[in-house]
Amino acid sequence: MTPYLPTPPPPAGEAETTSSTTTKHEKGIYTIPNAKERVRLIIEMAQSLQTHHKGSATLFLSGANRSADRLVHMILAHFPGFRDTAIHPYTGTWIAFYKRAQILVADLWAALGGDGDGAVSMPVVEAHGLDLCKFVDMDRITTFADYRVPQLLRNLGVLEYGKDLAERVDSGKEIQIFSLEELYIRASTVVAVDELVVDVKKKVVMEEEKNTINKKSKDTNINAVKMDW
What we know:
This protein has helices at residues 15-18, 35-52, 57-62, 68-78, 99-112, 122-127, 148-155, 163-170, 180-210, 224-228, and strands spanning 85-87, 94-96. By secondary structure, the chain is mainly α. The chain has a two-stranded antiparallel sheet with strand order 1-2.
């Protein structure tokens, strides 16, 4: 008679485990802000993976065929929580920055794409079949249009606000979400970083040409994600 062997629980992070995640608030334990909403989004992702991709994130990633741009659109199609969009308050134009989806793609690339100090070593990545994140079109990803980047760009003189907006920001008044001011700040941030990428690339190439005698090579593969870092 075969002895009864209980099935071990799936590792943390697999869709079956994640879909049953709940929030716990215990004394002395750090409470994550907006925990209920974060858990709802995690469950939403897990349920989509179970329904459409056999519960496998790896299977999902393989559908992008190493395209960062395609993966962003796949994330938007399957995970509604990543669809951070807005409507222009005056024209009614649909506006999408896709910050969340692009951050996810950039983090996967940074960790598993073999580029950057925090990346997992490529022999390890390839041994486990995780080289799906060696994206070939990272230049299609824009900077992450949040509040930190425009703060830095303004301090550096890259962005300049109008008098009224500058006074509101400097006095600590909150800029309403989806307001015209917020949308313009975010859009200006994306454009500014794209222009910085072009300028930095030119300067790096010029320096590279000057240093050919020293045989010192620099990374000329500059993109908006690296600029954001």
